[in-house]
Design a protein that fits this description.
Helices cover 8% and strands 56% of the residues. With 385 residues, it is mostly beta strands. The protein has a single domain, classed as Porin. It has an 18-stranded antiparallel barrel. Strand 17 (333-343) and strand 18 form a beta hairpin. The radius of gyration is 22 Å and the shape is globular.
Length: 385
């Protein structure tokens, strides 16, 4: 709670300074204040409180200090200010509000080096919808805002002249459940990892690694309870442009202690996308996801198979329609989502419809997944300033 209070205080204090300094060009070029306001209404007849109305404001302060030789020091702080109202009209209602830190980081960068510390977004990989490398974010492709929690840590990236790049990170103080986590992260022990990404013919390959200590106490009755299990994750992904886009993304997660069928986890994704010369241009993306857990590594048991299809078509310069379908091969159920958006001068309007199973089995992808279970409609207005 102390972290959140400090960040909100800094944003409110320095946002006023932005307007004061805006009259001085030399200073205003280095100090920026912006924000995103969104309001939405969701109706889902399957929920006990079918009407859900919310508003969110994300104010962001960014400050740059330019140094000689193309070097830069910059800072960013932002907050996630949320208020919601859920109701079964004329019967029951519930009001909730929350203020939390969204981003809070400082960065030193040159033309080839970046070092960033604080609460930040870290994401990478080749897949777009069903992502095995969704290690540190929860971005849902159906969410117009692409919101995700950040992680506290230190990230360094170096970019070679041939477009290869290397990442190194150290995370600390994070205990929220992430998308593919089996067991909670021990927030008092640092997490360490890195990534090497390099170009190959008409594409690129990436190798990723992450180490953390896992707490399985309270994870499930059939899971042995350990407070600190060393866990290692290895990922490999690649993407090519061969007229059509092709990619793969695979991960293997291993725990050093035997916790039964959850000791090893393998996740594999293959995907393709293409633009068709139909009307204003139709974009198609297809992905196949295979998830397996087992006591033995690379011995596929407890399998889950998902497919995802995305179609996007621009109706005009200011209108676009997008449809996303996830299909659970094992349970023979489909998750259907359609989104039409219209761009006004300063506001974007979204109209979304979804038809999904009541029992929601898609990988956890942030708050949007909670809203899109069952069948319903949602409208949203987004204003960026």
């Amino acid at each position: 709670m102390k972290k959140n209070t400090v960040i909100v205080f800094l944003i409110l204090m320095f946002s006023n300074a932005t307007f004061i300094f805006s009259q001085k060009k030399a200073i205003s070029d280095s100090l920026f204040f912006n924000g995103q306001l969104s309001v939405y209404a969701n109706y889902n007849q399957n929920n006990s409180l079918p009407l859900f109305v919310g508003g969110r404001y994300i104010p962001t302060l960014h400050y740059n200090i330019k140094l000689p030789n193309e070097k830069l020091i910059d800072f960013e702080v932002s907050a996630n200010i949320l208020g919601t109202f859920a109701s079964n009209p004329f019967d029951t209602s519930h009001v909730d509000k929350n203020i939390s830190a969204y981003r809070a980081w400082a960065r030193y960068s040159t033309s080839q080096l970046e070092i960033r510390i604080g609460l930040q977004k870290i994401n990478f990989g080749s897949a777009s919808m069903l992502r095995p490398l969704m290690w540190f974010d929860q971005i849902d492709p159906r969410d117009p805002l692409k919101l995700t929690n950040g992680v506290w840590g230190l990230l360094g990236r170096y970019y070679f002249l041939n477009n290869a790049n290397i990442w190194l990170w150290c995370l600390y103080g994070n205990d929220k459940q992430r998308s593919w986590d089996i067991g909670a992260t021990n927030k008092n022990i640092p997490e360490l990892g890195g990534r090497f990404q390099f170009p190959i013919t008409k594409g690129e390959l990436g190798l990723s690694y992450h180490h953390r200590k896992v707490d399985t106490r309270g994870y499930g009755e059939n899971v042995p309870a350990f407070s600190q299990i060393p866990e290692n994750r290895i990922g490999i992904d690649g993407k090519w442009d061969l007229g059509v886009g092709l990619w793969f993304e695979n991960t293997w997660t291993n725990k050093s202690k035997n916790i039964g069928v959850l000791t090893n986890q393998e996740i594999q994704n293959i995907g393709i996308d293409n633009n068709f010369d139909i009307g204003n241009g139709l974009n198609l993306v297809f992905e196949q996801l295979f998830v397996s857990t087992g006591e033995r590594a690379f011995y596929f048991t407890n399998n889950i198979l998902f497919s995802a299809l995305s179609l996007s078509y621009p109706l005009s310069l200011v209108d676009n329609i997008n449809a996303i379908v996830y299909f659970d091969e094992d349970n023979k159920t489909a998750y259907n989502f359609v989104n039409w958006n219209h761009q006004f001068k300063n506001i974007t309007f979204y109209l979304m419809a979804y038809w999904n199973p009541k029992t929601y089995l898609l990988p956890q992808q942030g708050d949007a997944g909670n809203l899109f279970s069952g069948q319903g409609l949602q409208i949203m207005f987004v204003y960026n300033h």
